[in-house]
Design a protein that fits this description.
heterodimer; A: alpha/beta; 4-stranded parallel sheet; two-stranded parallel sheet; 6 strands; about 20% strand; globular; B: alpha/beta; 5-stranded antiparallel sheet; about 40% helix; disordered N terminus
């Protein structure tokens, strides 16, 4: 399991770094990747794309991208985009770790 | 809050936009801003031929009044002016006075109060300019009493539009994007005016299935679909002067 923290914002300025980090982790054999959103205050479409574009690859290899600690506002946006049932969203990193089998 | 007829301030819009006539108009407008009435009436009775220059005059007057919390209403606007403002999606910023016998919006305090809830800003179309303007915009929204979820959605909308302008319209980097938000009880209207190439974001509606896109591994191209999902109407027009005008409306009826 690898934990990635995008910081306060996941947008055009760092979305490509998130994609690269996830791809690199997947290539390195990490099946479950936790995106720690505890500090995340803003999620743009580029940030949404960085997550969506990597979920299927993880699931194809028996893993997942697990979003943990997202604020009510971030979750609200994901809900508007009809993504809450598709994405794996949990309240805390502990829950995420449990889901990942740790 | 009540609005009395005596709080009106009427300015005649000149028949021709000569330097002398515009100087007179400008002097009256400055006087009105100092007088700070509830509403300024722009008397359009003399207008005959509507050109883009007139639109600039009206918009400039509107922005200056709005930033001072003063409503703007057009008196006897010719059909050509109304149509021009409608095409540019600017008509809703101006209360058009009804003909004799009709109920004037000026007699409806709510309408004037609504037009007073206006925020104007300008920013450079680069990453730093967009981020700083977004912060200022959120600061404004926080003072208006909109729901926190709406505030968050509109910050996202602002960022997506501004980023699209930067990346796709490729505006003149030395010319600011003009940004106006009107807050009414029932609706929020965000308006962006900017230079650059014609780029109409309206055809791509809310039909994108984000889950289906995720299943194909799509990583980019979600911005416009997100914009449409988070708002109720997106309109675009390129005006006669070569500026692009993008207007976004957000209905407040579903605010939680």
């Amino acid at each position: 399991v690898l934990v990635l923290d995008p910081g306060k914002s996941l947008d055009n300025t760092n979305a490509h770094q998130m994609v690269e980090a996830i791809a690199s982790a997947q290539a390195g054999g990490y099946r479950h990747i936790i995106v720690d959103m505890t500090h995340l205050e803003f999620l743009s479409s580029a940030g949404v794309g960085a997550i969506l574009g990597t979920v299927e690859t993880s699931r194809e290899h028996g893993g997942d991208i697990i979003l943990s600690g997202a604020s009510t506002n971030i979750t609200h946006v994901l809900k508007v985009l009809d993504l809450v049932d598709y994405l794996t969203i949990v309240g805390s990193e502990t829950e995420a770790a449990a889901l990942a089998g740790l | 809050v009540s609005v009395r007829a005596s709080e009106r301030y009427t300015i005649a819009v000149p028949e021709e936009l000569t330097p002398t006539a515009m100087a007179g108009f400008e002097a009256r407008l400055r006087e009105a801003l100092e007088f700070a009435p509830a509403a300024v009436f722009l008397d359009c009775e003399k207008l005959r031929h509507i050109t883009s220059s007139y639109v600039n005059v009206f918009w400039s007057a509107y922005e200056r009044c709005a930033s001072a919390g003063i409503g703007v209403q057009l008196h006897e606007p010719p059909d050509g002016l109304i149509r021009t403002l409608q095409v540019m999606d600017l008509a809703h910023f101006f209360n058009v006075e009804e003909p004799d016998g009709g109920s004037s919006p000026a007699d409806d305090p709510a309408r004037l109060i609504s037009t007073a809830g206006v925020y104007t800003d300008r920013f450079r179309p680069d990453t730093g300019g967009i981020d700083a303007a977004a912060d200022r915009f959120v600061g404004f929204l926080a003072r208006t009493g909109v729901a926190e979820s709406t505030e968050f959605e509109l910050r996202t909308v602002f960022y997506e539009v501004a980023t699209n302008i930067r990346l796709h319209a490729k505006p003149d980097p030395f010319v600011d994007v003009m940004f106006t938000t009107t807050v009414a009880e029932e609706m929020l209207v965000l308006c962006f005016r900017y230079t650059g190439v014609e780029f109409d974001p309206t055809p791509r509606g809310p039909e994108l299935d984000f889950v289906a896109a995720a299943r194909t591994g799509q990583k980019r191209g979600f911005g416009l679909a997100m914009l449409h999902r988070l708002t109720d109407r997106v309109a675009y027009v390129r005006d006669e002067t070569g500026w692009n005008v993008l207007t976004v409306e957000k209905n407040r009826s579903r605010e939680s």
